[in-house]
Amino acid sequence: MFRMSETQKLSPEAFDRLQTEHDDLTTRGRIEIAKKIEAARELGDLSENGDYHAAKEEQGKMEGRIAHLAAIIENAEIVDVGAIAGDLTVQAGCVVSIRYEGDDEAERYLIGSIEERRDDVTVMSPGSPLGQALMGAAKGDTVTFEAPNGPLNVTVDDIEI
What we know:
Elements: E1 8-10, H1 12-41, H2 50-74, E2 76-78, E3 95-100, E4 107-111, E5 122-124, H3 129-134, E6 142-147, E7 150-160
């Protein structure tokens, strides 16, 4: 769960995308939802007006997203992934390929905020048990983390920036 004072490490691209989404929701989004609510009010009795209730629910969800984005933006730390190129250890913003002990197949993860999402790779929080164990590890390192069924060993196969 995201806590309001928790620093979120974001790439410049993710920060810009979130700022743009926030700006859009606080301007165009609020205007559109106000128009929907007004149009639904004109239909009459609000107690049985499905359009009105749907618009109010949409407004509540949008306001929640606006508050979430504002908190992320306010507490964001911009991470220049290119700057970590010389330090090839697992850091927020990099993609890491890992292999669980006994597995032949590697898995790829983007280490960072869910807001960093990419289509081609799953996001892993640096605050998760595995994410914490991987932070600072180099290619070839094996780390151990506490899983629900006991400790697991994971080897870092590759690190991409």
